Amino acid sequence: MVGGLFRNLKYNLDFLRKNIHINDNVLHCSFKHGVEKVVSCLSTCIFPDKTTYPINETMIHNGPPHDSNYGYSYAKRLIDIQNRAYHDQHGCNYTSVIPTNVFGPHDNFNLEDGHVLPGLIHKTYEAKKNGTPLVIWGSGKPLRQFIYSYDLAKLIIWVMREYKEISPIILSVDEEQEVSIKDAALTIAEAFDFKGEVIFDTTKSDGQYKKTASNEKLRKYKPDFVFTPFKEAVKNTVDWFISNYETARK
Q1: Looking at the annotation, which residues are catalytic?
Q2: What CA–CA distance (Å, rounded) separates 227 from 224?
């Protein structure tokens, strides 16, 4: 069960219970039926709210997560605990990846439930179509590392085939590729050729200011991996959304 900031704030209990059940069922059934390897997805939002940056794989359990999504965060942290326990007790090869903010074609573009980039893409589409201002919730100042879904897919296949550790690995663009929500919104507006007014509604919550993640561990394994440039990935996603508007998840 996943969602953006405002859905997390509203349904922390549901995020906790449903994800605990999903995780436990998947791992238990995998053990019961002799699955050779399981790769689970965690998230950078599970890291402690009060921390130093950049965050890395050793820091997951070092303190409470941000209050906005504690239900989801604690449920996801438990995957790492279960992976270790299955390995220690039964020798299972279960691991996890920690992607930064994922976006791309076939995303969930729902305005209430979607994550920030697909939500902004849908909002910009509607604003251009209706000739209205583009209203973005929050100040636009928070920083995020966005990873294109096609890049993430390549890395997850590599993890499945070659990564041997039980401990998690962060799958992220490099630190210098961090983008503010404002710059992300303006990049989306440019991809749509949106000429209207862009308004940042500062009465709405920003959520966590930054979650800068280190991909040092990934770079030790994959020093030459080339990530798709952000503008190119956004343009590809916007073009896909426009072409598939009627059938896209929204």
Answers
A1: 72
A2: 10
Among residues 8, 1, 2, which one has the least CA distance to residue 208?
8
**Secondary structure (H, E, C), 135-146:** EEECCCCCEECE
Query: How far, in Å, are 36, 51, 90, 109, 181 from residue 25 at the CA level?
Result: 16, 31, 17, 28, 36
Give the tens place of pLDDT for each residue, 217-248: 999 999 999 999 999 999 999 999 999 999 99
d(CA 42, CA 46): 8
Q: Which two tokens stand for residue 42?
A: 């965690």
| Packed helices 181-192 and 116-130: angle between N→C axes, nearest 10 degrees | 40
Tokens representing residue 109 in the block: 């573009």
Q: Is 207 left (phi over 0), alpha (psi -120 to 50) or beta?
A: left
> What is the pLDDT, as a whole number, of residue 211?
81
